[in-house]
Design brief:
The protein has a domain of 57 residues: Ribosomal protein L30/L7 (Ribosomal Protein L30, Chain: A). A three-stranded antiparallel sheet has the order 2-1-3, with no helix packed on it. The N and C termini lie far apart (54 Å). The chain is of the alpha+beta class. The chain is built from two helices and three strands; from the N terminus they run βαβαβ. The radius of gyration is 18 Å and the shape is elongated. The longest helix is centred in the middle third of the chain and has 10 residues.
Length: 83
């Protein structure tokens, strides 16, 4: 016999925020990537950061937040309204 499993009380719900409340991040490269591992340089390039003081605006998604977290020591992040 199989039993139906129900989510535990207090378990996080998946799905995140509703689509209408999109938030954006302004990410600025503030330090040089010279001397840092290749993966960190590639992460900055993947975000669209090329030179010091270059800025990009990206949607706040788990993928972008993970990339920012990997290079948090060389970037400045600000929350901005929809561009």
């Amino acid at each position: 016999m199989t039993e139906k499993t129900t989510p535990r009380a207090g378990a996080p719900k998946r799905g995140g925020k509703p689509a209408s409340s999109e938030s954006y991040l302004k990410i600025t490269l503030v330090r040089s990537l010279i001397g840092y591992p290749r993966r960190q340089r590639d992460t900055a390039r993947g975000l669209g950061l090329r030179k010091i003081r270059s800025e990009v605006i990206r949607k706040e998604t788990p993928e972008i937040l993970g990339m920012v977290r990997k290079i948090s020591h060389v970037v400045k992040v600000e929350a901005v309204e929809k561009p």
